[in-house]
UniProtKB/TrEMBL annotation:
Keyword Magnesium among record annotations: no
Keywords, alphabetical: DNA-binding, Phosphoprotein, Transcription, Transcription regulation, Two-component regulatory system
CDD domains in UniProt: REC (cd00156)
SUPFAM superfamilies in alphabetical order: CheY-like (SSF52172)
Record bears the keyword Phosphoprotein: yes
Sequence ranges assigned to domain Response regulatory in this UniProt record: 11-127
Protein name: Response regulatory domain-containing protein
Region forming the signal peptide: none
Length: 173
């Protein structure tokens, strides 16, 4: 994968209490061209979200004191971050990890062990969907602004029509 220009590099927040796992993911994802921000737990992750713009969050399902689903819910509850894609990493040994992750609002669940290439493909898919959603939201905002402008123009034309009708009646009388 070609490394994007620094300003265009997607910013990925990786959250894991396991330092070696965190370092490995950060190094490999960084080599794929992502700007990596790391956090060792859910609370630190929320702090990072407030510090700088994040394009995607990858977090462990099992963490303390705030686990992956709790982190996902906290992200979804904050309007500024509600649309940031969240992917949770779970062990196959955990009962119903996907159910808990999706119920909390995660977009994807990656079960360990996973192929790194598949992880990167899933990240790209989530980032592409987020870009499409952002473009759609921008188009909707632009349409709302145009509709509001047209409503104002229509109101002004209506006022002018009433004024002209009143003037016509005054002249006729």
């Amino acid at each position: 994968m070609a490394v994007p220009a620094p300003s265009k590099r997607p910013r990925v927040l990786v959250v894991s209490p396991n330092r070696s796992h965190l370092a490995l993911l950060a190094r490999r994802l960084g080599a794929e061209g992502y700007a990596i921000i790391t956090a060792s737990d859910g609370r630190a992750a929320l702090g990072e979200l407030h510090r700088s713009p994040i394009d995607l969050v990858i977090a462990e399902l099992v963490m303390t004191p705030m686990n992956g689903p709790e982190l996902t819910r906290a992200i979804r509850e904050q309007t500024a971050f509600a649309e940031v894609p969240v992917m949770l990493i779970a062990s196959r040994a955990e009962p119903d990890p996907a159910v808990r992750a999706f119920a909390a609002g995660a977009e994807d669940v990656i079960l360990k062990p996973f192929h790194f290439e598949v992880l990167v493909a899933r990240i790209e898919r989530r980032l592409a969907a987020a870009r499409r959603f952002a473009a759609l939201r921008a188009d909707m905002n632009a349409m709302d602004a145009r509709a509001a402008l047209k409503a104002i123009e229509l109101g002004e034309l209506k006022d002018r029509m009433y004024a002209l009708e009143a003037e016509r009646r005054r002249i006729s009388a």
